[in-house]
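Note to self: keep these together.
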Amino acid sequence: MGSLIERYKGSNTEAQAESSNQNKPQVIQQEVLLLRQEIDLLQKGLRYMYGEKDINHMNLDELQALESNLEIWVHNVRSTKMQIISREIEMLKNKEGILKAANDMLQERIIEQSGILGTSSDTLIPQFPFHRNMESDYYF
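Structure:
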């Protein structure tokens, strides 16, 4: 009885392996067909986007797929642009903080020097802090 069960299990697995081997080419062919259709649709969409073909020759499904892809691409481009702008703003804020700290330090030095050199009548020391004019890159 045990040997009969073992033979049944062995033949059943062999039959399944044989049938799956026969179905493999069909599954692969279907997958290849789907991938080719997707590639054709994408290539067609690219040709239309670059103006190589007249968009009036696309059917409704193709136009909807193209519209959907374009919306996704626009969203991705805008997201990337916003990330870059945010990084630039952060870098500029950091730079502003560094420049303000440097300006404060320089103003303190000027005040210290004006206290030391304030008794001399031939030196001209301003009584106001220096501010940078952004348009001309000069301090006044």
